[in-house]
C-alpha cells in the first residue's frame, strides 16, 4: 500500500509540475458557483485550490475535478468538519483522494506528505521575521511546493528562492493582469487567484512563457 501511495504521489507531482510550467495559473475557488468556470478553463489552468466546502460535499467536488483531469488541492484550514490529525489525513488520502493539500501548519504538511499527498505550504509575509520563519519551516516540513502571500511584493521571491529550489506559487491582493505578470517576471512559478476574470488572462504571452 505504501509503495502504491509513493508511486501515485510521484506521478501527481510530475503531472502538476508539468501543468505549472505550461499554464502558470491556478484557480482558487472560494465560491462553489465558480467550479463550472474552472472546469470550462481546465485546459488553461495548472490546477485548482479548493477553499470552500465541508466534509459532506468535498468528495463530490474532488471527484468532479478528477474526472476532468484537473489537479485539485484542498486548503485544509478552509474545509469544514475535516480533522487534520493523523486519522483525518489518512481518511483524506485513502477516501477523498485529492491531488494534494495546502496548509499553513508545518506539522500538517509533514504528516500529509507521509500519507502520499502532494503538499503545498502557504506562508503570509508581513515582515522580515516572516522570511526567516519560511526557511525554518521548510527545513522541518519539506513540502513539495511553497505558496507565498500576498503577491504584491514580487521582489521578495528572489529572497525566498535564495534558500529553496522549490516552485513558488503566489496569490493575494491581485486585481489586474499586470500585477500577476510582475510576479511571474520576478520568479513565481504560477499565480493563484480567486478572480475568474484573471483565470482567463492566461493567453497573455507573459503568463504562458518564461
What does this entry show, briefly?
Helices cover 45% and strands 18% of the residues. It has ten helices and eight strands. Helix 5 (106-114) packs parallel to helix 6.
Please provide a written account of the structure:
- The chain is an alpha/beta fold and 210 residues long.
- Helices cover 45% and strands 18% of the residues.
- β5, α6 (128-141) and β6 form a beta-alpha-beta unit.
- The mean pLDDT is 89.
Residue-averaged pLDDT: 89
The largest sheet has its strands arranged as: 1-2-3-4-5-6-7-8
Using only C-alpha atoms, the radius of gyration works out to: 16 Å
Provide the CATH top-level class. Answer: Alpha Beta
| Strand count | 8
Largest sheet: 8 strands, parallel, barrel
In the predicted model, the low-confidence regions spanning at least 5 consecutive residues are: none
The CATH topology name reads TIM Barrel
Which percent band covers the strand fraction? 15-25%
Domain count: the total is: 1
Q: With helices defined by DSSP (H or I, 4 residues minimum), what is the helix count?
A: 10
SSE string, helices as H and strands as E: HEHEHEHEHEHEHEHEHH
Q: Provide the helix percentage.
A: 40-55%
- What name goes with the CATH superfamily? Aldolase class I
Termini separation comes to 39 Å
